[in-house]
Amino acid sequence: MTSESGWRGSPDLWLDAAGEILLESGVEAVKIAALAKKLKLSRTSFYWFFQDREELLDALVKKWKDKNTGNLIRQSQAYADSLAEATLNVFDCWLDQSLFDSRFEFAMRSWALQSKAILEEVQLADRQRLEALCTMFQRYGFDETAADVHARTIYLVQIGYISMQTDESLEVRMQRIPEYVKTFTGEYPKRNELERFYFKHRYTETGAE
């Protein structure tokens, strides 16, 4: 970036601002003038980084895919000693916004109601995520049909959480985790697996740290 471009912002700055507006007000509010006002930059600064609004929206879609779909797939492939622990690896996504942004997910699904192209992107993401979860179950001996049903059970429950904008405290969610794992996999997580999971998310059984 040249020294002259500092006052124009950066691609990430404009993209982050677009993401904030998308979450707050929906895609119709993601407009160049609104972004410029939010960032206190000139409208012409935008065009140093993006050809037009459509290129910015395409970048938002890519950011969502890289983060939410990419991380969910990676978590489903992470090392685990048991299916229960593999499932807890996936649950990391539901508790760590740096891995999976539920508000971003909700905004994209709302956008999909208005755009056939975005609906197709969301449907593709659903297929890719379900395939990854199905593969996870198959690694632990489930046949194709059983793996598919168990994968859908995990995934559709979480999408339900997001669609309903369910608000649970960390303590309530953590208390439910062992039963969710049992429901989804047929086995409870081992004590040491749970303790590692709790520690990762800064939780103790007497409350959050």
Topology:
Elements: H1 11-25, H2 32-39, H3 43-46, H4 53-77, H5 83-95, H6 102-112, H7 116-139, H8 144-163, H9 170-185, H10 191-200, E1 203-204, E2 207-208
Antiparallel strand pairs: 1-2
Helix pairs in contact: 1-2, 1-4, 4-5, 4-7, 5-9, 6-7, 7-8
* SS strand fraction: under 5%
| Span between termini | 41 Å
Sheet having the most strands: 2 strands, antiparallel
Name the structural class: mainly alpha
How are helices and strands ordered from N to C? HHHHHHHHHHEE
Number of domains: 2
Bin the helical content: 55-70%
Count of β-strands: 2
Low-confidence blocks of residues: 1-5
* Bulk shape: elongated
What is the average per-residue confidence, as pLDDT, rounded to a whole number? 94
Strand order of the largest sheet: 1-2
Number of helices: 10
Whole-number radius of gyration? Answer: 20 Å
Can you offer a commentary on this structure?
There is one protein chain. The chain has 209 residues and is mainly alpha-helical. The chain folds into two domains: 1-50, Arc Repressor Mutant, subunit A (Orthogonal Bundle), CATH 1.10.10.60; 54-208. The chain has ten helices and two strands; from the N terminus they run ααααααααααββ. A two-stranded antiparallel sheet has the order 1-2. A hairpin with a 2-residue loop joins strand 1 (203-204) and strand 2 (207-208). The longest helix is centred in the N-terminal third of the chain and has 25 residues, at 53-77. The model is unreliable at 1-5 (pLDDT under 50).
